[in-house]
Amino acid sequence: MSTQPSKTLETFPNPHPERDYTIHMEVPEFTCLCPKTGQPDFATILIDFVPDQLCVELKSLKMYMWSFREEGGFHEAMTNRIADDIVAAINPRFLRLTGRWNVRGGIWTNVVVEHRQDGWAPAPKVELP
């Protein structure tokens, strides 16, 4: 196999660091293991961030997400860990990471994690007619 899972998140320079803009990514096939049963857990991971100086490279993000396939962890821990790793790699102005976990025992779980750089605030919302 030419590619392997990896915990390395590669980055590249933000092409427009002078401007706030949002990057939205969806990872619909995230898989890890339930720490209680060892059975697979599935989620869609939604990543929204306002980059500062760096952006995350997509292939490395794919390999990073793949690296959790054989790891056990609670939904809350996995979602926070992914957010922490992305923040450590790119230090975005803002990040919102949502884990939409598939039903388990008749219960849907969504975990939302946010990060803001010190002093950063979004521009006021513009309402157009």
From TrEMBL:
Residues noted as binding substrate in the record, renumbered to the chain: V56, E57, L58, H75, E76
InterPro entries documented for this protein: GTP-CH-I_C/QueF (IPR043133), NADPH_dep_7-cyano-7-deazaG_red (IPR050084), QueF (IPR029500), QueF_type1 (IPR016856)
UniProt xrefs under Pfam families: QueF (PF14489)
One Gene Ontology CC term in the entry: cytoplasm
Enzyme class: oxidoreductase
MF terms (GO), sorted A to Z: preQ1 synthase activity
Function: Catalyzes the NADPH-dependent reduction of 7-cyano-7-deazaguanine (preQ0) to 7-aminomethyl-7-deazaguanine (preQ1).
UniProt name for this protein: NADPH-dependent 7-cyano-7-deazaguanine reductase
Source organism: Guyparkeria halophila
